[in-house]
Amino acid sequence: MATARKAAAQQATAGSGGRRQDRHSMTVTRYHFLSGLPKAGVDVLLRVLDQNPAFVTGEGTAAAALFEATVGRMSDPSSVEAGLAVQQQKALLRAVLDAVHHDRPIGSVVFDSNPAWIGQIGILSALFPLSRFVVLLADAADLDGPGQREMRDLKAALDGPAAERILVIERGRLINDALTVMDVLYHFLREPEFDHDLSEFEAPGRTAGEGSGGVGGRGATRLRADGDATLLLKSG
Questions:
Q1: Which pTM value belongs to this model?
Q2: Which of 31, 36, 54, 144 is 20–30 Å from 111 (CA)?
Q3: Which domains does the chain have, with CATH numbers?
Q4: Region of residue 227 (phi > 0: left; psi between -120 and 50: alpha; otherwise: beta)
Q5: Cα–Cα–Cα angle for 231, 235, 236, nearest 5°?
Q6: Model confidence at 64, in pLDDT bands (50, 70, 90)?
Q7: Rounded to an integer, what distance in angstroms lies between the CA atom of residue 233 and that of residue 236?
Q8: Pairing state of beta strands 221-222 and 231-233?
Q9: pLDDT in tens, 127-163
Q10: Using one digit for the tens of pLDDT, what is the confidence trace for 198-232?
């Protein structure tokens, strides 16, 4: 269903003179990073995002492991990587993402999913100024507990300079109010709207879009009062 929908969208784009492709081909690749704590929910979100022909999605790629390993080598004074100039190190780290997603179309919007990205938000936000970070939580209350390493990293990032580039979504809200969540997500990513098939998000007895928050209010609770606040989408 999703594959057919994406193919139809690609055909429609081609039939309209390729305006959508032209828009992206004039820009560099934009990387966005998804993390699920726990993982459940991210795979469904990726399948829905993949319906958009402008998006390239990757779950379980080698990007996060390679990135962390490269960062680690740069911290080792005896390594070759540590001897590189700062700009060379940055280029090398960017090349990790480019290599893993080497077959992407020119100017794509790439979503790479791995919980480990949470611990790299500071570095990634500097390397990719257009990047955004989307985190799915089973329960927003987990932010108040000690949690696992990724949860501690997330809380630190929410208090850091890249906080306005992090969108935290509670999994229940994604399932019960997919229409509002996708509206917020596209607004957050600064991408043109796309007509997704949201049937995968439908909870028993509900229709996608029947949520507690209206699109007008974007159904979001602000975690920060200053600037462009980080958003937390709560269920119910």
A1: 0.79
A2: 144
A3: 2-61+101-233 (3.40.50)
A4: left
A5: 125
A6: very high
A7: 10
A8: antiparallel
A9: 999 999 999 998 777 777 666 788 889 989 999 999 9
A10: 988 775 554 444 444 433 334 555 554 344 546 66
Annotate the chain with three-state secondary structure. CHHHHHHHHHHHHHHCCCHHHHHHHCCCCEEEEEEEECCCCHHHHHHHHCCCCCEEEEECCCHHHHHHHHHHHHCCCCCCHHHCCHHHHHHHHHHHHHHHCCCCCCCCEEEEECHHHHHHHHHHHHHCCCCCEEEEECCHHHHHCCCCHHHHHHHHHHCCCCHHHEEEEEHHHHHHCHHHHHHHHHHHHCCCCCCCCCHHHCCCCCCCCCCCCCCCCCCCEECCCCCCCCEEECCC
